[in-house]
Design a protein that fits this description.
The chain is 37% helix and 18% strand. It has a single domain, classed as TIM Barrel, CATH 3.20.20. The strands form two sheets. Strands 1-3-4-7-8-9-10 form a seven-stranded parallel beta barrel, surrounded by four helices. Strands 5-6 form a two-stranded antiparallel ribbon. The longest helix has 15 residues, at 5-19. Helix 2 (46-58) runs parallel beside helix 4 and helix 4 runs parallel beside helix 5. By secondary structure, the protein is of the alpha/beta class. It has helices spanning 5-19, 46-58, 66-73, 92-105, 135-143, 161-174, 191-205, 240-249; strands spanning 27-32, 62-63, 83-89, 111-114, 122-126, 129-132, 147-151, 182-184, 210-214, 229-234.
Length: 265
């Protein structure tokens, strides 16, 4: 009899996986390095972004802002049944010239994480031309309807991350544009260690509502720890099925995700 137990367990697992509804929660997708100039496995072209946004719309998802999420957290509003937050980390000109027109085309909204400490510094190349990240371009992004938020400075040098957070916020405040009190952690840093070592207190003092890190999984709408929201990156190699899985499960596709989806219908 025991030889039949394992196949039964596997069969039950597969049935449960494909027929159970997806977990209730919120996916946050991250788009980085939008460019037509090179391919590094992460950066995606204008055409691919166009297709991804069309698919998100086709699958019935509605984009929300972090301000919407804040109102939901404070019991001042509700969220659509299939909600997603789209975030963008890219050069200022790219977000304004590429992201905004496509978001408008598909009637979606998004959040631009701004590396505020580089404002006024020539750091980006757009079509081979050096571009300054200045206050005017930040204001253009806001005027275009994109939500602005704080991008953590991974090049903070010897200064504690808490101090770089203060500088990032001050730089955005100087532009005069309203922005969401949302912080994107710098890459390759231990979020849990940062929170243990004082960053949580500093974020509360700076009235930061949410903080996001790279990770996988659906974000619990109970928002038990708003300083550890997870966002999953969308890459150049993602297929429509990959995008669907990231929307449903907040992670990349695994071996048992192949085949037709029932959860998104």
């Amino acid at each position: 009899m025991s030889i039949f137990v394992l196949p039964v367990i596997i069969a039950v697992f597969w049935l449960a996986y494909f027929y159970m509804p997806p977990p209730a929660g919120l996916s946050i997708l991250g788009f980085r390095g939008l460019t037509d100039l090179w391919s590094d496995g992460v950066s995606i072209s204008r055409d691919i972004l166009d297709h991804h946004l069309a698919l998100i719309k086709q699958l019935g998802y509605q984009t929300i802002s972090f301000d919407d999420l804040e109102r939901f957290k404070n019991h001042q509003g509700t969220l659509p049944p299939k909600s997603v937050i789209l975030t963008f980390d890219a050069s200022y000109e790219t977000i304004y010239q590429v992201v905004y027109p496509l978001m408008r085309k598909h009637q979606l909204c998004g959040t631009a994480f701004v590396p505020a400490t580089s404002i006024g510094i020539f750091t980006r190349l757009v079509d081979g031309v050096e571009q300054a990240a200045d206050d005017e371009r930040i204001r253009k992004m806001y005027a275009a309807g994109l939500e602005l938020a704080v991008h953590g400075d991974s090049g903070a040098g010897p200064d504690p991350i808490e101090e770089s957070l203060r500088r990032d916020i001050a730089a955005l405040e100087r532009t005069g544009c309203p922005f969401a009190r949302v912080y994107s952690y710098p890459d390759k840093l231990s979020v849990k260690a940062l929170l243990r070592n004082g960053l949580r207190i500093r974020m509360k003092n700076e009235r930061i509502s949410f903080a996001v890190r790279l990770g996988s999984g659906i974000n619990d709408l109970g928002l038990r720890d708003p300083y550890q929201l997870k966002r999953v990156l969308v890459t150049a190699g993602d297929s429509p099925r990959d995008i669907e899985i990231k929307l449903i499960k907040g992670r990349g596709r695994r071996f048992f995700d192949y085949g037709n989806s029932r959860n998104s219908k």
